[in-house]
Amino acid sequence: MAHRYWCGECGHRTPWLGAADAERRHLAHYAARHPGTAPGGHVQTRRTLGGCACLGLTVLLLLLLAVAAARLR
Ligand SMILES: [Zn+2]
């Protein structure tokens, strides 16, 4: 599922992203543009083209993490 957050204070919206990324962008927008305001607005979801792309991305990320961890040793 892709998520898009809409700002409750202005017309800003995040790009279609994963839930965690979209929420982070939404909160960053509030922190930058509406400091002191509790994050509001609403979230829109849509199905991505199969979960395979997401799974592939997760595997790729894990591989990158493994490589990064190996280099730190
Ligand atoms: Zn806003």
Produce the secondary structure layout.
Layout: E1 2-6, H1 19-33, E2 42-46, H2 52-72
Antiparallel strand pairs: 1-2
Bound molecules: zinc ion.
The site of zinc ion (ZN) has 7 residues, from helix 1.
* CA-based gyration radius: 16 Å
Q: Note the main sheet.
A: 2 strands, antiparallel
Q: What value does the average pLDDT take?
A: 90
Total strands: 2
Q: Reading side by side through the largest sheet, how are the strands ordered?
A: 1-2
C-alpha geometry: flat
In DSSP terms (H or I, runs of 4 or more residues), the helix count works out at: 2
User: Which residue ranges are poorly predicted, with pLDDT under 50 across at least 5 consecutive positions?
Assistant: none
Small molecules (ligands, ions, cofactors) in the structure: zinc ion
| Helical/strand content category | alpha+beta
**Residues in β-strands, percent:** 5-15%
Series of H and E elements? EHEH
Any overview of this molecule?
- It is flat, with a radius of gyration of 16 Å.
- A two-stranded antiparallel sheet has the order 1-2.
- The model has no long low-confidence stretch (mean pLDDT 90).
- The chain is built from 2 helices and 2 strands; from the N terminus they run βαβα.
- The protein has 73 residues and is of the alpha+beta class.
- The termini are far apart.
- 49% of the residues lie in helices and 14% in strands.
- It has one domain.
- The site of zinc ion (ZN) has 7 residues, from helix 1.
- The site of zinc ion has 7 residues, from helix 1.
